[in-house]
Design goal:
CATH architecture of the largest domain: 3-Layer(aba) Sandwich
Structural class: alpha+beta
Number of strands: 11
Distance between the termini: 57 Å
Radius of gyration: 20 Å
Strand order of the largest sheet: 1-5-6-7-8-11-10-9
Number of helices: 9
């Protein structure tokens, strides 16, 4: 077997290992037990990556998505419409960084260059949201070895509409709702809808992830506390701008490291699943 064939076999094995078919079947059973039937999931046509992107390109894109500056850059790029030049994209990055990001996106066939202008190869994309949802689902697959799906819709349109990311982690149904707008762009009605989704999905753990470095305490935490029924205890700070409600519902931002923040919340949830809190110092 030649070097190329070995590399292709390794790629396919890695891809198969991330699919976790047993967990997928278990997740579908958990949804059926809640009276929910999948209508759509993983809409590849709504994310920046080509639908048939090779694993090497997907992995490289995933690693870049860990960078806050890259996510801000992508959000800005999509907002410019179908065509743009590098100078249009210097709101969050230097021109040097912009050019580096554009070269990378051209290499993995997200954009194409026509003279001095760049164009999206998927001109129908008008929102960064689905790509960010794909990334969080990939975090569950790549970092946590768990099955996850994004952009989920159920038949019959249960309360709350679309569900951003649903995962099965350590046997627990996990829901992640993702907001890419800064806190000032999030309204009380969105928090109310988040709780409607929880009532329909009944996850073991739910997280509201705001992809921002801004504070959660000033607005998002307050809106949560306005929404939850009394005498439920107030949200408690886990660390930094990470907050929890009885170690089951979490609010987090992406300051310092989005992936680490997400895993910190999940591990806190797991800790309080396995050890009675009264035994902890």
């Amino acid at each position: 077997m030649g070097e190329r064939e070995v590399e292709e076999l390794r790629r396919r094995l890695e891809e198969l290992s991330r699919r976790v078919p047993g967990d997928e079947a278990q997740l579908l059973r958990a949804l059926r037990a809640r009276g929910l039937q999948l209508h759509r999931r993983d809409p590849k046509e709504e994310i920046l990556l080509p639908a048939e992107a090779p694993e090497e390109a997907s992995s490289a894109f995933y690693e870049q998505m860990k960078r806050y500056s890259f996510r801000l850059f992508l959000r800005d790029m999509i907002s410019k419409g179908e065509a743009f030049v590098p100078e249009d994209l210097t709101r969050y990055c230097s021109l040097q960084v912009v050019k580096r990001y554009l070269r990378f996106l051209e290499e993995i066939e997200v954009i194409k260059k026509e003279g001095e202008t760049y164009r999206l190869l998927k001109p129908s994309i008008h929102s960064f949201g689905p790509t960010l949802e794909w990334f969080i689902a990939e975090v569950f697959k790549r970092e946590l070895g768990s099955f996850a799906c994004y952009g989920v819709r159920f038949r019959g349109r249960p309360p709350g509409g679309d569900y951003d990311v649903i995962a099965l982690w350590e046997g627990n149904l996990i829901y992640v709702e993702i907001k890419s707008s800064p806190p000032r762009g999030i309204e009380q009605g969105e928090i109310r809808t988040f709780f409607k989704r929880l009532k329909a999905l009944l996850p073991a753990c739910a997280l509201l992830l705001n992809d921002t470095h801004l504070r959660m305490k000033d607005k998002i935490v307050q809106m949560f506390e306005d929404e939850i029924a009394r005498p439920t205890p107030s949200l408690q700070r886990l660390s930094g701008e990470l907050f929890h409600l009885r170690h089951r519902i979490y609010i987090l931002n992406s300051k310092k490291d989005l992936v680490k923040n997400l895993i910190t919340c999940l591990r806190d949830f797991l800790l309080f699943q396995t050890i009675p809190s009264e035994l902890l110092p």
